[in-house]
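[Q] Does anyone have a clean C-alpha cell version of this?
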Amino acid sequence: HVHIPKHLKGCKNNTECDALLINSKSRTDTYPAVTVRGNQHSTQHEASVSQVSEEQIFYMKQRGLSEAEAMSLSVNGFVNDLVREFPMEYSVELKRLIDLEMEGSVG
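[A] Here you go.
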C-alpha cells in the first residue's frame, strides 16, 4: 500500500502488480492500493497477468531441460528484476525454494 500524506508536495509513484500463472489451476488477486492526500502528485498503477507458455516449456525441453527445470527457469526469469535487489543470501534461498516448488508442481 502506498500512502502520500497531505503535507508532501510533488510526489511521484508508479505501482506495478505483476503476476505469473504457472498452470491451469493458478489464480491471482491483484489489488494495487494508492492513497493520496492533497494534490500536485503524479501517481500511476498497473497490473498484468501472464502465464508460462507451453511453447516456452516445449522449446526448453527440446534443448534437454526437464519440465521442472524449464518451469523453474521461466519463474526465476519472471522474478529476476525484483530478486536482483535482494541481498545475495536471500536471492540464493528464493531461487532454491522456487526450484523445489517447481519440482513438485509439474508432471
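[Q] Thanks! Anything notable?
[A] The longest helix spans residues 88-105.
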